Amino acid sequence: MPGLITMDDLTDEEIISILDDAERLLPVARGELYLPLLKGRILGNLFFEPSTRTRMSFETAMKRLGGDVVNLGDVKSSSVVKGETLFDMIQMVDGYTDIIAMRHPRQGAAQYACDSAKVPILNGGDGAGHHPTQTMLDLFTIRRAHGKLEGLNVVLAGDLRYGRTVHSLSHALTRLGCNVTFASPESLRMPEEIVSDLKDNGAEVVETDDLFGQINTADVIYMTRIQKERFPDEDEYAKVAGAYKLHAKDLDVAKPDMIIMHPLPRVDEIHPSVDSTRHACYFEQAFNGVVARMALMCRLLGVEVPADVEKAGGII
Ligand code: NCD
Known about the structure:
It contains eleven helices and nine strands. By secondary structure, the chain is an alpha/beta fold. It has two domains: 3-130 and 289-315, Aspartate/ornithine carbamoyltransferase (Rossmann fold, 3-Layer(aba) Sandwich); 132-285, Rossmann fold. Strands 7-6-5-8-9 form a five-stranded parallel sheet, covered by helices on one side. Strands 2-1-3-4 form a four-stranded parallel sheet, sandwiched between helices. Strand 3 (99-104), helix 5 (109-116) and strand 4 (121-126) form a beta-alpha-beta unit. The protein binds N-carbamoyl-L-aspartate. N-carbamoyl-L-aspartate binds at residues 53-54, 125, 131, 134, 164-165, 225, 263-264.
């Protein structure tokens, strides 16, 4: 069954058309309009790793569209502790649900699940691999802020080695015509295979360890958390912890419409003084997870989002 495991599962045209669907669904996501496009459908949330935004926004998206959700809940109180395999779990949840959102600590787990599932699988993060549904909400946020994607200068900063959000996002941004700069400490550079893949596809990517030198030319600065849980040992983490910290005063040189994004949770990469600047966009970005995931679930379930949502929808 087709699912969304990496951004390669969507063509450029599909990405743009899903973003357009998401745009039209905004009043539904805000709870201003009732549009039960997914009534009778059940989403299975299988999160084997901690999640707040991804799990909750999938759940909100399904419920706002009139559908329902079943959750694996705490892994420690599931049959995983009895030794149940991922394969067996997928066979079973397949029968309970119409679509599955899954997060797993192992890279490749989502593809493995997708290969044996009858319902579509949406990869909500597989280890340090990919996080394509996050990419859709990130693209949505950038396009809403700047009215376009092509030609924008986007700086991806922080832990580019283990951060799965930036792995998926860098592919999509370069495909859609953005200029991408990778800013990271040397030991957390974007994996070589991703950089060469992007270059093979004709993208020009710049790599630097100087985040602060990028602020004046950036249209978007996408900050990320150092992925502590993926470091082989604590000492290695300690060497890079707190490598980049943005404060409001660092943004004096920024273009007026530059936006700061972050998939969240933040640790100390973005000082709270940034929150009240015109550049802070990360909470709006988190909200956009609802519309992006609504549009994605409709697409994967073959449900068309009406052109005139206001006309099709009803009062709550
Ligand atoms: C990200 C993730 O899980 O990869 N969070 C998210 O989905 N919004 C980023 C992170 O954990 O740092």
